[in-house]
Every structure is written in structure tokens, then in C-alpha cells.
Design a protein that fits this description.
The complex is a heterodimer of chains A (218) and B (462).
Chain A (H helix, E strand, L loop, with lengths): L20 H18 L17 H29 L5 E2 L9 E2 L2 H14 L6 E5 L13 H12 L5 E7 L2 E11 L3 H8 L16 E11 L1
Parallel strand pairs in A: 1-2
Antiparallel strand pairs in A: 3-6, 4-5, 5-6
Chain B lengths: L1 H31 L26 H4 L10 H19 L15 H6 L30 H4 L2 H4 L27 H6 L17 H8 L23 H6 L2 H4 L4 H5 E3 L5 E3 L5 H5 L3 H7 L6 H4 L25 H4 L7 H5 L1 H6 L3 H5 L4 H10 L11 H5 L2 E4 L2 E4 L11 H6 L7 H8 L2 H5 L12 H17 L1
Antiparallel strand pairs in B: 1-2, 3-4
The chains are: A alpha+beta (218), B mainly alpha (462).
Protein name (chain A): Tll0287-like domain-containing protein
Pfam families (chain A): Tll0287-like (PF11845)
Keywords (chain A): Signal
């Protein structure tokens, strides 16, 4: 597995720290300065390289923040809320051909990822992975992914960053912990009939897997 | 002597030059000619049953992609496949869409089997390696990605690696009648359901709801020309059937609007006119073998062009709406059986009249059975589907054969249990006899799915 040598991206897994006001100001000021130098009316060409004014890591952190916000809202305010109301509508793996059924949070996430895959303008891909997948499609598919999942489980609260080469193309890969944010997450997984004997018993905020964001780099 | 010899040489030179020029001209013209038999000389090999009707329109498949940067043999062809098939695949909830393989982590798998390119599995002009459904790969292709299926499904552990696509088990694209939950839901159904009836068409009700200003018309209301030949039944055919009942007058189909804004009477009614009210039917007609030539601007299909055996007398019957729905009665009962039998002379079509399904149809026509309980050719090949606006008839008579298990869900399931239907569809002899007898061998997939879910249910209840 190759490591990124760019100063903007740590070559080792980083501990996520709260940004200080100062660094936030510095980043903002840099971005504003770059925008002004490229001309406000002419957006800079999109690129995966740091020279475009935003690092792959910063980009990955941003899109991950959005996708996790949506994922949390769906799991908490839709799926769990229906459950609390004893609604006839439930999240069901076979929702497409069932009445009173909506997609599971993991399916919702995956369908969104597939729509992004279809969009040639997106410039990145993302996926859900777990060391304990109930759906085989979500198991680690490379040595990098395996190492990343192990790391974010062993180091709760930390992300895992690095580079990976797949099919002759290089990618910056960010792996974020996917936590049990809503009651529906851990109760459904803990009660699932497909769970293996060594399947962990999850509770609130436990790391259940990881969200991978892949950004192509030169 | 020398002069004559030289003259002979000159004439021979002209002869051979002329022959070569004629050959160059012939093949040169073939490259630029419109779709016609002259292009046959350029075909590198026989095309599949799905495409032979349009094989002389090379550009239907070989037209370059719009974006020159994406232009390669692979993407040009896949673009062409998608022009006709992308929507079909979406409608059948394709199990293996290209987008499923776009995640970069699939790179190693795509190296072995590029599931994003239609041509990986479906090449053309290679009849010697083409099997059912236009597949040109060895039938063990599933194994490349699913070799460890036995780990997740113990029931599959001992199964042969090339048996996945056996009827009643799995298809690559369309598994709507085969996926595990559907099998479990329909487990234990009787072979013959208590309510054995197909949905009723309701286009007339849909029309009336959308056109409250329309009402039943009578012969006196007809606005057609009054120069009908003696003995003509045009007016009575119209007045006694659906168009008059829906308030659709002669001029609404026959009046043609010119560019100048004027209208003039036209005896011939174009398919685009039918499409104004029967859009789903006309659109679907053009995705099946009856109308696919029309969809790309070619002349209508003729029975004389077909690969299936046809009645000689029907050789030059053009395939358009009127071929089956003869004006002005547009008789759907005639279209459901007699219209098919008029052209088709293959063993399956010839066996229909003696089948138990045909007997049900005759009983319905005689009023001995309720409407919708008979089984015509159209019952199976032009299924009645539920759409956004109500029940409509899918006029792509090949859709239920892509693959035949599609029929289990859209057709057979109205009268038969799923296990019975899938077992029958898996028997090629029954397919020829129009499923005249119950299936001898029962498929195991429903039992397996039921056992799988039963085990899950027991786990959950602990």
C-alpha cells in the first residue's frame, strides 16, 4: 500500500482534532485569496490535485460530512421514528416489492452512492464497508480497506487516510467510522437473523463499519 | 499478328479493369447505401435472433458515440445497446447494472469479466458461440464473482458451477420472479389458483375520465366522407366498437394537418395517430420483433423476412397496428388469436389450437366462462400490466421471453402458483405444446428459499 507524500495529507493515519479558530480562519483566508487570484467570475478548473486550492482530504471530509448528516437524519428521524410510533411502515431489505416498506439506512446509502457513480461530474466515489457486514457487498474488498476498518475500530473517533492503486488508477482514500447513531441501527443489527456467532453486540455510538471516500489523483 | 495480339491484350486489360472497378463500386456503394440487401455483403457473420431484422442497418449499432474521446469499439456498441435496451433493463430492476461495478474496488473483478460492457457477454456476428438470450460467454460466468456462494448459502454448496442460470433459479438481469423473498412469499401456492382470471383492460374508463367532454357517437354523427363503396361496413364497424363509444370521430384519425395549417382527409392512418391515445401500446410495439424495424426508421417487418416458420400466404403482410387490429372494428379478440395464427406457422403456434389453454379461450368466447379466464396467444405474449394510469397491454410480445421467467410473474401468476409456473417454464417440451400438461419435474428454488427464511424467522423469534 502506497502512502501519500503530499504535505497536505498525512502519510500515517491521523487523529481527528477539533480545528482551532485560528486554523479555520487560515483555511478560509487561503480559499478566499485563491478565489480572488483566479478571478471571481471564472471558477478554477476542478482537479484532484492540491494545487486547485482544496486538498483531497479536505474535499473528502466535506462530502463525508454531508453524506453522514443525511444518513443520520434518515436513521434517526425516519426509520427510528417510524419504529417508535409502531407504524405499519418499516424499513425492510425487500422494500421494493413490499407494501408499507422503505429502504434500510444501508440501502439508502448505497443507492445514493450508485447515483453518484452514475454522475460523471461527481469526481469521487463512496461506499459503505464493515468488518461484520450483514450484506456481503459491504465487506472489505482490498488490503487497504481491511487495514482501514481494523484501524477505525481499534481507534474510535479517528479517521484513516491514505492512497491506493486500483486497476492502474491512483486514489486518495479516506475512511471514516460509521457509528450507531440511532436506536434503529443497533437494535436491527443486534436482532438480525443473518448475524454470525462472532457478531458483536452493538450499542449507541459504537463503530459498526466505515464510510470510504475515494478521490482519483494523478 | 502482333497488332492483333496487342489489341487482345488491350481488350483484356479493359475487361479486367472493368471487373475490378465494378467490384470496387459495388462494395463502395454498400458502405454508403441505405439499409438494403446490398449491405449483406459486408456482414461479417450471422446476427442473433434479437437483431437479424435490423442487421442491414449497420449504423443502428455501429454509429460512433457523440463524444469522440469516448469513441471505441466497446463504448460505441454499448451506447447502441443502451439506446434500445437501457429502459428495458431499468423496468426489470436489472440485478447487475453497470453502476453496480463502478466502485474502483471492483477493478480486479472487471479485469476478469468486464460487467460494464454489454459486449463482454453479448457479441454479435459470432453464431458459432452464441447460445440462448444472445449470450456469447461460457455459461459458467457467474462463478468468477460468486464462487464462494456456498459459504453464505449452504444449500448451494454442492451445486455445479455452471448451473446458476437454470430456469427457476437465477438470471443475470431480470430476477423479478426469482429473487428469494418473492419465492418465499409464493411458497405453498396451489397449482391452480381459485381465482384464475387476468386483469380487465380499462382504457375506456381512463379515456372517459380524461375527456369528460366526449360521449358515445352514432352513425349519424360520423364526419367521414360519404363515398363509401357498396357493401362497406366501415361505418357500422366504427359505430359498434370502442372508438365511437369513446366519442372518437372519423376525422380525429383521418384528418391530416399540413404544414400550412390546413387539414386534409387521408385514407391511410399513420402509427403516430394511434400513438396519440395508445402511447404505451405503440411504444412497446416498437421494442419487440414486430415493430423494432420501425423504431429505427426501417420499412415494416414482413413475415417473409422472419426466421421463424410463417404461412406462405402471409409473406407480404406489413407489421403495423392494422396487421392485427383491422380497421374499423379493431377487434381485440381477433387480434388475440386469429391475427397471430394468420402468419405464425412454428410448432408452438400450430400446437395452440389443441391445447387446454385454447379450450379455455374458446369457452370464454362462447360465453361459457367469465371474461378473462380464457388463454389466448395475447394472454401470454401481450400481458396486461398495471401502469400509472391503469391496466395497459404490453405490445412487445418478446418482453415476457427476455427471459421466459418474466412470464411467471406477469402472466402465469394470474392463474397458477409460482412453483407450478416456474417448473412449467423450465420444460422446453411444454413450451412447444403451449403448456398443455402439468410439469413433470418440480423446481427446488421455492422450497430452498422457504427453508432459508424459515430459519431466519426462527432465529428472530428466539
Amino acid at each position: 500500500m502506497k502512502r501519500h507524500n503530499c504535505p497536505n495529507i498525512s502519510a500515517r493515519p491521523q487523529r481527528r482534532r477539533a480545528k482551532s479558530m485560528l486554523s479555520a480562519f487560515a483555511v478560509t483566508a487561503t480559499a478566499v485569496a485563491m478565489l480572488c487570484t483566479t478571478g471571481c467570475g471564472e471558477p478554477a478548473a476542478a482537479s484532484a490535485t492540491p494545487s486547485a486550492g482544496i486538498t483531497p482530504q479536505k474535499f473528502a471530509d466535506g462530502v463525508h460530512a454531508v453524506m453522514m448528516a443525511d444518513r443520520t437524519v434518515y436513521a434517526t428521524h425516519v426509520v427510528t421514528n417510524l419504529k417508535k410510533q409502531s407504524s405499519p411502515v418499516t424499513a425492510d431489505e425487500y422494500w421494493m416489492d413490499s407494501t408499507n416498506a422503505i429502504p434500510l439506512p444501508a440501502q439508502m446509502f448505497r443507492m445514493g452512492a450508485e447515483l453518484v457513480d452514475e454522475n460523471p461530474e461527481a469526481g469521487f466515489t463512496y461506499s459503505l464497508r464493515s468488518e461484520w457486514p450483514l450484506n456481503e457487498q459491504h465487506k472489505a474488498k482490498s488490503e487497504f480497506e481491511t487495514a482501514a476498518l481494523k484501524y477505525i475500530t481499534a481507534n474510535p473517533g479517528e479517521n484513516y487516510y491514505g492512497e491506493e492503486e486500483l486497476g492502474g488508477n491512483k486514489y486518495f482514500v479516506a475512511v471514516y467510522p460509521d457509528r450507531a447513531v440511532a436506536e434503529a441501527c443497533w437494535t436491527c443489527h443486534n436482532d438480525h437473523p443473518d448475524r454470525a456467532a462472532d457478531y458483536p453486540e452493538f450499542g449507541k455510538d459504537d463503530v459498526m463499519g466505515g464510510v470510504l471516500v475515494r478521490v482519483p489523483i494523478p | 499478328m502482333q497488332t492483333r495480339w496487342f489489341a487482345g491484350q488491350v481488350s483484356q486489360w479493359w475487361l479486367w479493369s472493368g471487373l475490378n472497378l465494378a467490384l470496387i463500386a459495388y462494395f463502395g456503394y454498400a458502405f454508403v447505401a441505405p439499409p438494403s440487401s446490398v449491405k449483406a455483403s459486408l456482414l461479417p457473420g450471422e446476427t442473433t435472433h434479437g437483431h437479424y431484422q435490423i442487421e442491414l442497418d449497420c449504423n443502428a449499432c455501429h454509429l460512433a458515440a457523440d463524444d469522440p474521446e469516448r469513441h471505441s469499439a466497446g463504448n460505441v456498441m454499448t451506447d447502441a445497446c443502451n439506446r434500445c435496451h437501457a429502459n428495458q433493463l431499468t423496468l426489470v430492476n436489472d440485478t447487475h447494472p453497470a453502476k453496480k461495478f463502478r466502485d474502483p474496488s471492483n477493478a480486479d473483478l472487471l479485469e476478469i469479466l468486464d460487467a460494464q460492457d454489454c459486449l463482454t457477454c453479448h457479441r454479435e456476428h459470432v453464431p458459432e458461440q452464441t447460445v440462448s438470450m444472445g449470450l456469447t460467454l461460457p455459461t459458467d460466468y457467474c462463478w468468477h464473482c460468486h464462487e464462494d456462494i456456498g459459504d453464505a448459502r449452504s444449500s448451494h454448496a454442492e451445486m455445479k458451477f455452471d448451473s446458476c442460470a437454470t430456469a427457476g433459479c437465477h438470471n443475470y438481469h431480470d430476477n423479478r420472479a426469482l429473487y428469494e423473498k418473492f419465492l418465499d412469499v409464493h411458497y405453498g401456492e396451489a397449482d391452480h389458483l381459485v381465482s384464475a382470471i387476468v386483469p380487465s383492460r380499462n382504457l375506456k374508463q381512463q379515456w372517459i375520465e380524461r375527456h369528460p367532454d366526449k360521449s358515445q357517437l352514432y352513425i349519424a354523427d360520423a364526419d367521414g366522407p360519404s363515398n363509401e363503396p357498396a357493401g362497406s361496413t366501415i361505418e357500422t364497424d366504427w359505430a359498434e366498437t370502442a372508438h365511437a363509444a369513446a366519442g372518437v370521430n372519423c376525422g380525429e384519425c383521418h384528418n391530416e394537418k399540413k404544414a400550412s395549417g390546413e387539414t386534409s382527409w387521408n385514407d391511410r392512418v399513420a402509427m403516430s395517430v394511434c400513438e396519440q391515445c395508445h402511447k404505451s401500446e405503440v411504444d412497446s410495439f416498437q421494442t419487440g420483433k414486430h415493430g423494432m424495424r420501425l423504431s429505427i426508421g426501417m420499412s415494416p417487418m414482413l413475415p417473409s423476412l422472419a426466421r421463424l416458420p410463417m404461412h406462405a400466404g402471409a409473406s407480404h403482410q406489413e407489421l403495423n397496428c392494422n396487421a392485427c387490429h383491422e380497421g374499423h372494428r379493431f377487434d381485440t379478440r381477433h387480434a388475440a388469436v386469429e391475427a397471430c395464427q394468420k402468419c405464425h406457422a412454428d410448432s408452438h403456434s400450430l400446437a395452440y389450437a389443441d391445447s387446454s389453454h385454447a379450450q379455455l379461450w374458446r369457452s370464454e368466447m362462447a360465453g361459457e366462462l367469465p371474461t378473462g379466464s380464457g388463454v389466448s396467444c395475447a394472454t401470454c405474449h401481450l400481458p396486461r400490466l398495471t401502469g400509472d394510469d391503469g391496466i395497459w397491454v404490453n405490445h412487445d410480445q418478446n418482453a415476457v421471453l427476455r427471459p421466459s421467467e418474466t412470464m411467471a410473474r406477469e402472466v402465469c401468476g394470474h392463474c397458477h402458483g409460482l412453483e407450478y409456473a416456474l417448473s412449467a417454464l423450465a420444460d422446453p417440451e411444454l413450451a412447444i405444446s403451449c403448456y398443455d400438461q402439468p410439469p413433470h419435474i418440480r423446481i427446488r428454488s421455492l422450497q430452498m428459499a422457504h427453508e432459508y427464511f424459515e430459519a431466519r424467522r426462527q432465529k428472530s423469534s428466539r
